Batch of 2 targets.
Target 1
Amino acid sequence: MALSYLRSSSSRSANLLRPLSSAASLRRPISTDTTPITIETSVPFTSHQCEAPSRSVETNPSELLTFFRDMALMRRMEIAADSLYKAKLIRGFCHLYDGQEAVAVGMEAAITKKDCIITAYRDHCTFVGRGGTLLEVFAELMGRQAGCSKGKGGSMHFYKKDSNFYGGHGIVGAQVPLGCGLAFAQKYSKDESVTFALYGDGAANQGQLFEALNISALWDLPAILVCENNHYGMGTAEWRAAKSPAYYKRGDYVPGLKVDGMDALAVKQACKFAKEHALKNGPIILEMDTYRYHGHSMSDPGSTYRTRDEISGVRQERDPIERVRKLILSHDLATEKELKDIEKEVRKEVDDAIAQAKESPMPEPSELFSNVYAKGLGAESFGADRKELRATLA
Amino acid sequence: MAAIFQGVGAAATLSSSPSNSFVPKKFLTSPRRSFSVRKVPSYVVVRSDGSVNFDLNSKSRRAQQLVANAVATKADSSAASSSSNPGHELLLFEALREGLEEEMERDPRVCVMGEDVGHYGGSYKVTKDLAKKFGDLRVLDTPIAENSFTGMGIGAAMTGLRPVVEGMNMGFLLLAFNQISNNCGMLHYTSGGQFTIPIVIRGPGGVGRQLGAEHSQRLESYFQSIPGIQMVACSTPYNAKGLMKAAIRSENPVILFEHVLLYNLKERIPDEDYICNLEEAEMVRPGEHVTILTYSRMRYHVMQAAKTLVNKGYDPEVIDIRSLKPFDLYTIGNSVKKTHRVLIVEECMRTGGIGASLTAAITENFNDYLDAPIMCLSSQDVPTPYAGTLEEWTVVQPAQIVTAVEQLCR
């Protein structure tokens, strides 16, 4: 039964469960209430060759608070990565996802870890959504041993096999055929799971996408192609790169759905719908209308091809975290202070992870030659100092 | 046709080759370095096939004079072109842009295609402001579709246009490999000579600063077997501009390899129009003991090693081969005949790299002149790791070059 808990200023509604210990006031209250709430998405879905799902999304307070926490964590993580890059602890390419968190979070809410996700290089938050830890993220970004790819992959190559996260790819569009391959394997082994292959509006013009889509449709694969349309392919706006920026329609014979990608609930609804569809009818395209606040990468200021007004406009009106915050507050699921506490906690978590990641050592020299081949094939590797040092991988 | 140039203050004469002559008579020694120290005039004969005959007496003198300037420094403004023509200083990416701009002005058929080359100005600023100057039809922003726009560039070239296709990173051109191999390289042959493909495919490649495995590729090793194409690698602002212009004027398809880490090199280059021979190697530092063949970024690692080697008493001859396909076996051969020892330093991977082909070519042609087996230092046969320390061990470092020369000259 739900317990009511009287706080200092306001009384809580009866359907919030609170921990009973006396230290509760110091600890962040965790809402585990799963009483269903129905919320309407602010923007209806637009569909192509299929019937759009309902605008009313079923959720519950626990889920909304999870959304808030996860997105706050992702946002904080990306901002921290920005600072680390400027401090030259992260080098090379670093593509940040802030603004697009709702897609990662909403998708996870609709699926299980048996379903596969594959994405391009803007993968930090998707990785975390799949269960990756902050330590793995920051250590990998800094090239340390504790990273998810042992420091050898970098920002664009995050993977997590045990939760079916297939990366993490640098070449634009190349992950989509891979994703359709994952779907093929799923169909082959008949395990009732689906694959979400994410790509951007820039990648939507790659030929390999249409090849993979054709084959997936032909073979009825449970592949869901998700276009994260943030309207810019590096410095080129979508209308300058695509004759038809209605990416959800570009599948032609493949049905499509256009979704407000800044609304985590809409994303959840769409992904749930897509999963059901893909298991029965083959591929479907989802277009997530989203936005990135940062430039394409840390070496792109992001302001030469769009105005600062546009960026701040989207931040004010459509920010995914603010939207969920307003929902939570308006439904009285938590106080503002509690939400701020969550954000503070999240910040601390991120700082701790960074400190821990900094402690992690750089990879050993021998790591240069490990994992080139799978062990057991007698392949040879030459030593780093070129002095006849050979390691036979026995 | 032979031309005779007087040595003193010849930098100005060197660069003012007639602008419509396709193969300029460029000296093998870089004008800024050699002739600023020269006190005694000597006569040099440069032939149309690119061969150079030096006055024998001056050769050893020049080698001695040049030891002091063993290192290719980034800003060599003190040894600038002679007083009659001071030239102007710029960075390598600006030199590429200058070359491109001058050719676009000179020939209205030259156009540029690539991702973010127009309004964005190019991801490495090589095409900055060109779209404003020449318009959207001559500086084309393409969607992210390498296979298609490379193919389209080749198709346009078949009719007589002269496109310059930019791969934002050389690695992305792997998506266009079919077009480059089958259409770009082979069409001139399979059509019995009817079509020429005067296209230039360019872009930055090589191992950068922790860019990750997919963005640190060296495509010269993959493209080198394609018959029908020419490959050149630039390494200084001077040869970047010269090679860019020569590549655009060439009737053959040329792939111009730039390097991500060399874009900010500064150098003073001549004001007047000049081009660099596409098939010629560049003598960076004449020497007697060992021939070091290199190209692109490794040139700088070699020159850094050369500093140490000179202090240890060695006299390496450093040649920047520049032309990766075909090799300038004339310059290389002359060098081998002189020093009898060859060290190749490259950034390609050991297996199937440019060094591997070069080793084979030298062994086949100059085996009798070699006193020791050819040594080839290349990058490790691994995907380039992200971690900084691992990435450093992937490529050849100056210390390894010094060790190799010591081993070779034992």
Target 2
Amino acid sequence: IHSLATYISPMHSLSARNSTAHRKAFPVLSFNYEYVRKPFEISLWILLALLMKLGFHVIPRVSHVVPESCLLIFVGLLVGGVIKAIRQTAPVLDTDLFFLYLLPPIILDAGYFLPIRPFTENLGTILVFAVVGTLWNAFFVGGAMYGVCQLEGGQLRGVDLLSCLLFGSIVSAVDPVAVLAVFEEIHINELLYILVFGESLLNDAVTVVLYHLFEEFSHAGVVTVADALLGGLCFFVVSCGGILVGAIYGLLGAFTSRFTSHTRVIEPLFVFLYSYMAYLSAEVFHLSGIMSLIACGVVMRPYVEANISHKSYTTVKYFLKMWSSVSETLIFIFLGVSTVAGPHAWNWTFVIVTVVLCLVSRVLGVVGLTFVINKFRIVKLTKKDQFIVAYGGLRGAIAFSLGFLLTGNKMKDLFLTAIITLIFFTVFVQGMTIRPLVELLEVKKKRECDGSINEEIHTQFLDHLLVGIEDICGHYGHHHWKDKLSRFNKAYVKKWLIAGDRSTEPQLLSFYNKMEMKQAMMMVESGGAPSRRKTVISKSREMEVRKMLHSNMQKNRQRLRSYSRHDLMMDPFEDDVSEVRFRKQRVEMERRMSHYLTVPAKRPEPPPSVRRVTEITSVDGRKFKVSAELIFYCCVWSVTLWLF
Amino acid sequence: MGSRASTLLREEEIEEIKKETGFSHSQITRLYSRFTSLDKGENGTLSREDFQRIPELAINPLGDRIINAFFPEGEDQVNFRGFMRTLAHFRPIEDSEKNKNTSTSEPLNSRTNKLLFAFRLYDLDRDDKISRDELLQVLRMMVGVNISDEQLGSIADRTIQEADTNGDSSISFNEFIKVLEKVDVEQKMSIRFLH
């Protein structure tokens, strides 16, 4: 949006003229567009993009067949065409705009809500696909392209090997934005989703290194072995460095969230800002910003969620979803606009060969790698899985922006055209056909229900069981290390990063509480008793439950004075079981709701109208609190000092 | 050293174990060397103390139950056959085995048998039902001391309520299977014994 259209405001001259003319009455209504031009146009673009998105869902038939990304690109094409027709200069998907503003929200949204368990279970597979697969793609496409260019002769003869390899590295990477946009709509099963999506995230490091490597070399002209080795080293630095930066910011964010109990309204901002800073800091050193962002989100999440209130959690969730949705919409529309606007150098051979080569190399790469990987996997990848992984390798806006970044390269227009065609092909053809193919091949879909408490308990049970068996066998496998990490986490890390009692709360309890909360909310929305309480509660049990509720209600009264509904006392002589059951549920629900909406931990909080520091009863507790605050402030100051 | 020779594994034994459990030759020998390293008494069988000597097992909340699972009903010693028989439950399911419609008895590492093993760890009194008390015991072992009894009780109640389909306030084996049908048991309950 930096290079926006230059509107000539006719009104401007009019108002100028008016002021120099004869003295007239005070202007009641005046017109000054220049003042608000930039934010106005930005807002207008975003608004129009979102209205488009809205429009698609109003027309149900279209949105079933065509994925949203295709429709948005199409709209972008139309808008670009319109702008070109009225001969204005269209806003182009500027690289800065893309990498600094549009990409981070999407990645943060994906990283924060990354399903950790399937990700870590399949990490080996994902890494192999991301690193080896992308390298294979880049070299195969680059090399074969070079061969084709030499064979073809004519205008392509000028494309040298390094340029081809550079081009290969740009088009080889699977794009997370496109993958997300398409896979989210087809609701595929978790394993395939995490394989393709994880690959698209982790291959960022490879892409960054290859891109910079080949760009440097294409200026220098010649590659030595030392350079290649340095490139390999660079890869490790980029990826591990990115993860490290992200993890540091994540820990800082978690630590900060420990102290936000008195200023709950700004809690979500900490999450966003720390993550964004992680991204930017990584970009400063040319480390992988995407991996940094993912690492930050993953590290921060368990601790932040234990610390922040339920409302803040909802805010974080919805803001992330909102921003990523807006970003995605804008990216696809701009892709369409830039296609129409940009300079093109169309070469049939080059473009067609690019598309074919990318497909071929993807299929070969996936099949070959799966053959090797399956030897090490417990649950093998079937042919169907391989097909979906290969077919889901979509290219997107990252490739486009990287191509746009190419400066001083005389092949830029040629490359850009090919990249755009490739993106269009993958998003339109593959994106549209993947849904019927998934149906046709009867690929397993995502299971619909949320986790039940049974699954949670039994999964934990099986984890312990497997760790035990592994220890008996003397086999230090996946479960062993996971168990060690969680013990370390529980013993040391949680104490520092989670406030109050929550630090010792077992995972099972937090899961159970979340479930109860969800059920309570659902009961409120449906406005009545749930349908499944079929077993009759025995009298003694009922008494037990009432006693427990009564004692809990006492605690409740101390906590929230303003809430008057808890005066609903239960009449112990009430004989009608169903009425009592309903009341018990209602009281229980209210208790839970009031408990969980504002207070994350079971500690006494002052009433909301009075802001004062919670008194800590034990002396040791106070000392600990003071020193923790001190450390926190020191950190903040040191960070500020470092920044300036 | 002389007593060691009598406990060396004979080829016929290896073949028998292979047929019964499905482990490969190298896996069996490797696990045999682990067996002998645990067997401090060098009498060809393991006792409960041998297992308890493994340090990580002591801090495992389910440690005792896992150890008990190795010992058949009422016995205090387990030989190598029994050891392997229990471990066979955790062998990954091969693709070739998955599609076989066996009329013979199911292999030890089939999904049902894996789940049966886990079920037996809950169900100590072997009445084919996980009662509320048994569930509470397991939960208490897993979550430690930081939850009050009432909370644990409500978690247990909810668990049973979710799983129980025939209204007997306990979880039978079939209900157990049903609840875990969405969990990838083949992967969760398998150890990659390196060959």
